[in-house]
Here is the input.
Amino acid sequence: MFELIKLGLPVVLGNLGTMVMGMVDILFVGRVNAAAIGAVGVGTSVFAWFMMFGFGLASGMEFLVSHAHGARDRERQCRYLIQGLILSFWIAVPFTGAIFALSHQLAWFGVNPEVIDGARKYTQVLSFSLFPVYFFNVLRLFLTAMGQPRPAMVLLIFGNVVNALLNYVLVLGHWGFPPLGAEGAAWATLVCRVVMMICMGLYVFSWDRKNGHPIRKFGLKYHADGMRQLWKIGLPASLQMLFEVGVFALATTLAARLTTDELAAHQVVLNIASLTFMVPLGIGSATAVRVGQAMGRGDQKGARIAGWQGYQLGVGFMAFSCLSLLIFSDSILGFFTSDVRVIELGKSILFIAALFQLSDGAQTVGTGALRGFGDTRGPMVFNLLGHWTIGVPVGAGLCFYWGLGLRGLWIGLSLGLTFVAALVLGQWVLRTREVGRV
Here is the structure.
């Protein structure tokens, strides 16, 4: 358990740093108006589809690099790093263009007219941060899979400080700069992501030099077998993330059909739920690495133990999170906005978000544990079934046809998430039994 915590804590803090960067944008634009909050929410949702698909493709590195690290095969580790960077470049270029193009089609999705102009500007600027986000993520996964998550954590903390400063200057208009609102938040995030990518690249370059230049010896060479393995594991994982994150992005698009205050309340609560989600996400990532390293050593028992320890940590934290959201709902919502109407609307759905914390923790850590076994197809199918055959239809029906509004939308999301958690747990139990018989 100690080794999992030792690896998981920096990963969790790094994930929180990623999430806090988006929260800082919300905090600053929340001092502008509800429309600005909605603009950031819509733009972030559009960006999230493409960002998470790329993250999913690269996530195969957690299994591949950690497995190679457990087997002490440094050449394979570096080969997967180069393939991850090449793959990220391949998809970053067309995806950036796609995000930019979609920013002009927001009215087609039924987004509230009050929000469209700010959302378009925010999305266009943010689209250019996809390339540095992908590269930073690949380098982060490479180091984490070798048990070195701290550099990413430190850089994300540094990035958040810079982002907050730039938001103060660009969103609100200080030091001679005009107040740019939501667009200013996008520029702040773009600058920070570029700086973080450069710093992470320099760190990996330094690591390569200290360890006999294994990356330089391999070179920026395409390796067909390595790329094939990355696609084999990463594609189902990317679809799983797309199904999971995409359902919340779609929920934001659906909420954008409601009033500006309802969209703002939805975005605030979604940010709160996303913040707590970062903890089991980090634990799940650490669990994937620990399980993968154990399998690389041929230690099946150690792999099972690491997986169940991940469940204990992840679900335990989310139980604490559930109680905190229920007890301190007013204070938490008030931290994000001073708009009384938005706070009241937020309280009605924060209660639902609190209840699905346990399911969220269980499915996230379980997905990470399965990824350590190289199993990404199961979670992909489960997320498709749970979110898109239960969560979206039920949520949309309750919201628009049964008149429950935001509450109905979030009830649907909660039901879908709970269904996914149950299926992932069942798959984990089956896989551990199979390994135990080997």
Q: What stands out?
A: The chain has 17 helices and no strands.
